[in-house]
């Protein structure tokens, strides 16, 4: 099995503001000694309650933030500095809120072509834009409209099209479905699953929602207070949660209709 994204011993802490004028500054250990292995074709879910360190871990894996300790690798090669081009070609990202991640003053064509231009991908960008817009279920006329002319679900489709454009091997997403209405949520979840299969992408998905991870991810990491509470096959972990924290998370989650148990 091919290991794509991996990390060992990741740590990241943040200084807290002083409580009093001459008191000591505390530290919040947002991520402590976390290792991650993303294998090609095995989608990974990262779950945990709010503040567990999911987004911090994701930012480290994306090289958007530097760890205090530990290394992130892609296909065995250390990712150093701020997001080298070869790494951005391979790993693309979709964030929670499409409205704030899409430039309101650009038309969709320019938004979706942006990674191709930044990464100097050769070839006809207009035809690639049309291809990925079609892949996410948007017509060619979408290319000349602005983000505010779309619904929330369509905007998230645009963000997904942009991430697909440079043909990444790994698609990383931080709560990509949680800002969506329940009615379009299930459609976008299925779309992401189908696109991953069609384009051979491996997903790394942060979610506080175990039902989403159950639906999409073969493997799961459960984070608690910045540490790995439990990890393994999603089916095994969710069927026989060993850690009381995972049991508590499971008990708090309503099931998606049609989700396998
Ligand atoms: N830039 C920062 N400065 C200070 N503290 C931070 C910073 N980023 C994160 N933290 C702290 O680190 C901890 C983990 O935060 P993180 O955003 O990774 O959690 P999360 O699991 O993504 O939560 P949520 O589900 O609410 O998004 C929290 O206690 C948070 O307050
Ligand atoms: Mg978060």
TrEMBL record:
What CDD domains does the annotation carry? ABC_NikE_OppD_transporters (cd03257)
Entry keyword Calcium = no
PROSITE patterns per record: ABC_TRANSPORTER_1, ABC_TRANSPORTER_2
Q: Does the keyword Lipoprotein apply?
A: no
User: Ranges for the ABC transporter domain?
Assistant: 5-250
Q: Which UniProt keywords apply?
A: ATP-binding, Nucleotide-binding, Transport
Instruction: Tell me its family.
Output: Belongs to the ABC transporter superfamily.
What name does UniProt use for this protein?
Answer: ABC-type glutathione transport system ATPase component
Please name the source species.
Answer: Amycolatopsis viridis
């Amino acid at each position: 099995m091919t290991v794509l994204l991996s990390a060992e011993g990741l740590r990241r802490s943040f200084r807290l503001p002083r409580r009093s004028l001459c008191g000591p500054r505390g530290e919040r250990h947002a991520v402590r000694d976390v290792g991650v292995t993303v294998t090609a074709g095995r989608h990974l879910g990262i779950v945990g309650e709010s503040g567990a360190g999911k987004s911090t871990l994701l930012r480290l894996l994306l090289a958007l933030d530097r760890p205090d300790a530990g290394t992130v690798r892609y296909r065995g090669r250390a990712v150093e500095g701020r997001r080298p081009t070869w790494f951005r070609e391979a790993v693309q990202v979709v964030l929670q809120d499409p409205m704030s991640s899409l430039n309101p003053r650009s038309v969709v064509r320019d938004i979706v072509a942006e990674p191709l231009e930044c990464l100097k991908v050769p070839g006809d960008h207009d035809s690639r834009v049309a291809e990925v817009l079609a892949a996410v279920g948007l017509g060619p006329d979408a290319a000349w409209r602005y983000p505010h002319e779309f619904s929330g679900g369509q905007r998230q489709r645009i963000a997904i099209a942009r991430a697909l454009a440079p043909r990444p091997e790994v698609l990383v997403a931080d709560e990509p479905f949680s800002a969506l209405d329940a009615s379009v949520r299930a459609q976008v979840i299925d779309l992401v699953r189908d696109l991953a299969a069609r384009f051979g992408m491996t997903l790394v998905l942060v979610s506080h929602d175990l039902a989403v991870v159950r639906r999409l991810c073969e493997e799961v990491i459960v984070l608690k207070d910045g540490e790995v509470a439990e990890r393994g096959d999603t089916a095994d972990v969710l069927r026989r949660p060993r850690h009381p924290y995972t049991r508590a998370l499971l008990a708090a989650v309503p099931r998606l209709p049609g989700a396998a148990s």
